């Protein structure tokens, strides 16, 4: 199961945090800080797996992360997830973001936190991987975005009735 | 339609008000978030940020509580709150508004509302209750997106108590026409089963249906559930192995639609899930493993494309191959694969390779030998994670010969390590290795000193205490012990002589204890010198009062012989110290100081209180606390309640569930005498066994079965490690560099490596030397392993073939050959008849006439499923994927593929692993029915044996009636299966009219229900018997467990009745004999520590009392008599497949002195209670 998904930038500023297990607000912040501390220390040419943050749980949990330009994408998972599988899931996530925002950059994530959450919601549900196909994810998100249009439709039609 | 209109109308006011300020609102809101972010990035200090956010939150609060706020502004405020929360500031004022937004909003508002709720709240939050209604409404919505949103939020968090309220709705979604909804419903149900396993027990059957879903996505989602359930109890799902194999074969064979490909690898994540499931299923089960050999082989072969994700699949393959019952050729291929991982220049793969090596090395130590040079390079790798993983691997291959080198490497790593978690982990490992494999005393003490000094504040407390215990209890050889202690004393004296500072507190405590206890062993070391050293310690700043107290007691021990008496040359150091601390603020220190003062002045008293060199073992502990007898009798005379042992109290409490009206007894004697003598140690031997014996029970299981797995694997490496390889001309060589990776598919011969260069450089030679010392003594020799005996295979339960059902049997016959074209046709035929699911087919084809009755209380399952559940026109989504079709249409290509893919497995629900013995007249859709036994049962329900045939050979209790009324009689029988207790509840109908909807529910807490069958019967005919199985596990020992519940049923006339039932299960029902040899017993005895001793009554004190008592105990409590020697007897038993309990009995003065030991606290206590009762009652 995926325990948490964190995105933060090179300075440790959180850009997205999603926890699939309940922690108190303080613990969550501590986890983000600790994770950043652990991840940012790592060189570029080392492996993408990390074991043993004390906070997020014992030896069963590990951090799997990727570093893109200014952002770190970190998934905290337990032993029931495949390391390489998650690594590619991060890739799918980033590619999807890239497609949705057209050349995604850190600013997109800052100003559209909600949209990022929706995309993530189509990929991972309650800590379980739901969908790994980029096109399918985009289709689902688009279907939801159409709500906006339908809303304007509802908005217009009664006026025409009058 | 009206729904839409309604929604429109409710949305109207908000939208209209929005109209007036659309432009302005939008603009201002977008800049609000922008402003917030911009001003945050401009800030420099944390303090400023805090102030800014507080201001922002105040603004948000004002905005959200204002009645004039539009929905759009509300949404915007929510996003800002989300942002603040992410930065760690609680935006609790928005919580209620987020719920409101989800409740009242439509479309986008709802989406934002739900998102905010799922980010703000947790499942225990009280506000969440307000969301339940909204979720209920949305689950019933016709709008797909609303349904999806509700399912998502439900799987993120939902109040546990409210799950029953929405469970039926979510279950309904499993038959929803849209695959996305089905998929989310499956995951939501999975979440429920994690949160509240008891509430979803009845829908396990539905998970099977999800597994058979025609959409691969839904099937993939259901694998999450299966992975979890199989992890918990693989036995229950072995019958599904064939289906999983078929699915995997077809996925690997590319039978899925192309959309499922990722970098042209077919559904890699799905493959990974399946491989994990197969590994779990095939573990320790040869016949199941045999099913999957072919497909594993194929997966290995197909995963060739050089992409990250194929390595993920390969890795899972390798793990599966090494987990299941071994097969030589597969092992060889897997070993090669591991080689490719380890040698890969990609660091992620190297990491996984090391992980895989660590995993397999207990079974196949040779593999580590093959890669020894790589491992050594990894030891010096720049990546700490790789280094750590390598040490983990070395830890697994440690033995007496290489322990020095390996421990040295670990200590070296520890010295440079910063990460707390790693340090703690490694400290424990080094201590464990040192205790296990220490080659000599000197080394052991040195190593432990290193551990203690490196540990610092992170030291887990059990390391120093184990170390001291080891010193104190010693081994068999007295001379050895003396040596060990002298080494320790010498090393500490010389350490203290250097005047060290900054030693960790725990190290100081160990030092002072050892010096106090053993410095007298060394003749030329005067006590006053040691006292001086210790007193100097007390002057160190930063000494905790805990450590001070250790030092003081050491000084007290040493101060014998009047050395502390006030001599002519003024007060000695002891007196000074005592004086100094006698005014300490710490009461304990003060007490010790005063004691010290007295003791040091009175040598006689000192000799009595602290006899020098008295051995620990001889220390008599009055465990019966007889010195308190006077106190107790006094208290009793004053009217105090007599003491009862905990288990007795517990039982009495259970018996008097009602309010207790008795006044409380006097608690003082209770608490005094119930403090158990916890430190009755078990001596841990210094170096118990060499070789790769397991480090934990789990590991040792692995090691034990390792001997099995090695046959057929080539042994290319000699016993003596690297150097020995040069002897044989044909022997393979070692990799020189990691940069010479093996060609991916090169043959195994020669270890896939280049030959060693003729003249290795010096550096090379160093490495080789290191290698030979690291891998010494490492070969496939079998370590003796106490608990390592392979688990007796759980009772084999093969599928029974149904010969009576034509279509079923034909499909079950082809269940393993998914590509058989006939399967395809079979599937189409099936889908024509009942497209909803194959399961429904069984119902309809065998539905007896009673089904025509219509009753208001019909359960959910019986509701006729719409015949074309998958054929509903896709109104909502014009882009519906082609996989949705009506049953009669020609299948679209994707579907055809998929249906053929599923062809092999739709038999699953048709073939129960064992036919539950339920009357065939029942038309229950939940139970599969075997015809023969039932006919027999109906004729003479009570004369024939109601116990299902597969349980008849097992030991079981008598059938005892539990409860009955005029129409129904419930009786129970406890069948002792090796791994569980099967509680059979026999429901037998009286001769009246048939009973309907009989359902049984039991509260089994604290037992664990491993499986449950037959708890709901649609119809129980007159004189029919239905059997309900509860397979129960006891994980924590309890003397007794009350299991109670009720049976409800309905008469045909319509009255519903309830019958309460309850029964008491005793610990004895869960005990199983543990066959051990005396030798194994002896070793096990030493390794476990929880113990209890008591004298029990003997049987027949005149004629062979021991034998008859033990036989009685054996028969009543299912113990195994290991041996009887003279007046002593040893017995062993096991709590199901779990905790072991050992008994040692001795006839002593007309009583049976019983000594019980177990690794689990509480088990000896509970067992003792039963022994006592058995002997007493007889």
From TrEMBL, chain A:
Q: What is its main location?
A: membrane
- Localization annotation: Cytoplasmic vesicle membrane; Golgi apparatus
Return the PROSITE patterns for the record. Answer: CLAT_ADAPTOR_S
Q: Which SUPFAM superfamilies match?
A: SNARE-like
Q: Which sequence ranges form a coiled-coil region, renumbered to this chain?
A: none
Topology in the lipid bilayer: Peripheral membrane protein
Similarity annotation: Belongs to the adaptor complexes small subunit family.
State the protein's purpose.
Answer: Part of the AP-3 complex, an adaptor-related complex which is not clathrin-associated. The complex is associated with the Golgi region as well as more peripheral structures. It facilitates the budding of vesicles from the Golgi membrane and may be directly involved in trafficking to lysosomes. In concert with the BLOC-1 complex, AP-3 is required to target cargos into vesicles assembled at cell bodies for delivery into neurites and nerve terminals.
**Name listed for the protein in its UniProt record:** AP complex subunit sigma
| Lineage start | Eukaryota, Metazoa, Chordata, Craniata, Vertebrata
TrEMBL record, chain B:
Q: Which UniProt keywords apply?
A: Membrane, Protein transport, Transport
Cell inner membrane is among the record's keywords: no
Polar residues bias: start-end ranges: 769-785, 840-858
Instruction: Fetch the InterPro entries from UniProt.
Output: Adaptor_Complx_Large_Subunit, AP4_complex_esu, AP4E1_C, ARM-like, ARM-type_fold, Clathrin/coatomer_adapt-like_N
Name its GO BP terms in alphabetical order. protein transport
**What topology in the membrane does the UniProt record assign?**
Peripheral membrane protein
Superkingdom, according to UniProt?
Eukaryota
Q: Which Pfam families match?
A: Adaptin_N, AP4E_app_platf
Any keyword Transmembrane helix? Answer: no
GO CC terms in record: cytoplasm; endomembrane system
Where does the record place Low complexity bias? 804-816
AP-4 complex subunit epsilon-1 C-terminal domain boundaries: 1072-1176
The record's Gene3D superfamilies line, in alphabetical order, gives: Leucine-rich Repeat Variant
User: Which stretches does the entry tag as region Disordered?
Assistant: 725-824, 838-885, 912-958
Q: Where in the cell is it found?
A: Endomembrane system
Where is it mainly found? Answer: membrane
Q: Which family does it belong to?
A: Belongs to the adaptor complexes large subunit family.
Q: Would you tell me the protein name for this molecule?
A: AP-4 complex subunit epsilon-1 C-terminal domain-containing protein
**What is the species of this protein?**
Coilia grayii (Gray's grenadier anchovy)
